[in-house]
Amino acid sequence: MPRGVKADVTEPMETTETYQPVNATTIIILHPGSTTLWLGRATDHAPQSMPHVIAWKRPASCTLQKKPDSFFARPGLHQKESETQRELALSIVEQGILTKKPKKHQQLQEQVVSFNAESEATELDDEVSHNQWTDISESPSFIIGEQAMYINDNDPYTLHWPMKGGSLNLHSGVGGSLTSVCADLEAIWAYGIKTYLDIPIPSLQFHRAVLVVPDTFNRQHVKEMLNILLCRLGFSSAIIQLESVSSSFGCGISCGCIVDVGHEKTHISCIEDGLTIPSSRLILHYGGNDITRCFFWLLRKMNFPYKECNPYNDKLDVYLLKELKETFCHLNQDIPAGQIHEFQVHRPGVRPLLYELKLGDEVMQAPMALFYPQLFGIVGEMLVTTPNLHYDDPEDLLDDKQLLESGSREPKAGKGDQTVAETDEISKPTGLLTMKKTADPINPEKGLGLDNAVIYSINCCGKK
């Protein structure tokens, strides 16, 4: 009778998981802004930058009249009280500047006005204007970046800026829907990665992405941007990083008050142990573009020699004023006023013009408007707000509403136990409560100086 044979049983060998270090060259960082997109690899010493704009070609069957691109207009600037408010704030700023300057620099205003009134343009015969309209002879469906900024207004293209004021630029006009804005972001980011980083789009499946967003960014918009990175561009993985936290990490500090002066808004928030404090977040609705407007207003008071400058209707003049602001404006009181400078005006198809310009204290007065926002002349607008952090998404099973409802039904935990709703401070709807606290000591329409805003943000750190 055959006997059964016991099969040999081999015990499973214990396997230890091994983690391979992430190659930093495969990490791409994207930091989108209202006017500029910064991008680069994690190993780069400095990021690449490009204009965050795309121009789409209008179909021939389109009967809608093209609206002029307004880069300089703001509704609150042309009110009856705007000029009076500016003059009053200017007198306060002048007193603060003149008290810290020698007496010989206090009587330069008349000299500056007289010199600029006599300054005339000189045509440069030996030079060719470096500003030329973008060639559209091949009729591309869209144009991205700097080439889009120099499209002639008469050409059948419409400029789209997908972000505005630290959030997606959603509006009721053409290209203002969420789907259209996401299509703009996908095209711009793909172009930037391919052109500036020399990475083919199909190879993004071997790369990871870090998306840097403002602290007050809409979470639903962040979800759409992650969908662009993972599903449309094809990154293998992606994470979100806040601007304030990224700034603190870049400076090598774990706590501080972060001030981000953007194109249209200024965001302030405090960082502690690498985490942002929600109650300290503050939004000032003025930024670098408002400084440019203020600088232009001061230049006209000083007889700006380029009399034909019209930034409200000509985008090339907007680019010129922005360049002048970045070149001449400062807050260094040791730099003497009354210096003579030169600048060139480049127009497509004509010879460049050279102007001599004498600048006084207006190079300091314009950036000082951040501390005296009445100098911007903005009337009838909300200038100070706090973000509404309430997050309610029907597609998210763990949004604020669900967390609060589930937390109220759960039994009270001990001191050592914390629920998800207690640990996720960012997801709490503290924006509405903070707005009520902010409305008492701060006049939202009067504005708040940058120095006082920083103090207010720090004082709010202890509020729950």
UniProtKB/TrEMBL annotation:
Pfam families: Actin (PF00022). Residues 406-428 are annotated as: Disordered. CDD domains: ASKHA_NBD_Arp8-like (cd10206). Residues 406-415 have a biased composition (Basic and acidic residues). InterPro entries: Actin, ATPase_NBD. Belongs to the actin family. This is Actin-related 8. It comes from Paramuricea clavata (Red gorgonian).
